[in-house]
Specification:
Blueprint lengths: L7 H11 L9 H6 L2 E7 L2 E10 L4 E9 L8 H15 L4 E4 L6 H6 L16 H5 L8
Parallel strand pairs: 3-4
Antiparallel strand pairs: 1-2, 2-3
Length: 139
């Protein structure tokens, strides 16, 4: 189901079953900037979620793909990703990106993604650490 209203509490409860650490994010501001999102339910219980972020143009990004621990390995994650891809395309995106841990590569390959080279800067580590490696000539 696409773009349904979801409470932050329901989404944080779902994420707590699949992610480490406390899940206390306020999701309203995130949804306001999203291209869309897809959910899976078992009756009224939220059991799956994926958010589609975007750059306002051709590129969309899957974020926070989550399936409740008790419902994993049933094809729910694959269905969420495929529906998210269709929604992103329907809303004008030409490319769909996803970052994932190495262990999830088989899952995302099965969903049609191919690995690409990409860069990542952990901002909590401080931009100064990144600046220390910049050539003064900008190369």
């Amino acid at each position: 189901m696409q773009d349904l209203a979801i409470s932050s509490d329901a989404l944080n409860d779902l994420r707590a079953t699949a992610w480490e650490g406390p899940q206390t994010r306020e999701w309203g501001p995130i949804f306001q900037r999203s291209l869309g999102w897809v959910c899976a339910h078992d009756d009224d219980r939220l059991i799956g979620f994926v958010n589609i972020a975007w750059d306002g143009g051709a590129h969309a990004f899957l974020l926070d793909t989550t399936v409740h621990h008790d419902y994993q390995r049933r094809g729910i994650g694959t269905a969420l990703v495929r529906e998210a891809a269709a929604l992103a395309q329907e809303r004008g995106a030409e490319w769909l990106h996803v970052d994932y841990e190495e262990a999830l590569e088989p899952f995302y390959r099965a969903c049609g993604f191919r690995p690409t080279a990409a860069g990542l800067l952990h901002l909590d580590a401080g931009v100064a650490a990144a600046d220390a490696h910049i050539n003064p000539e900008g190369i």
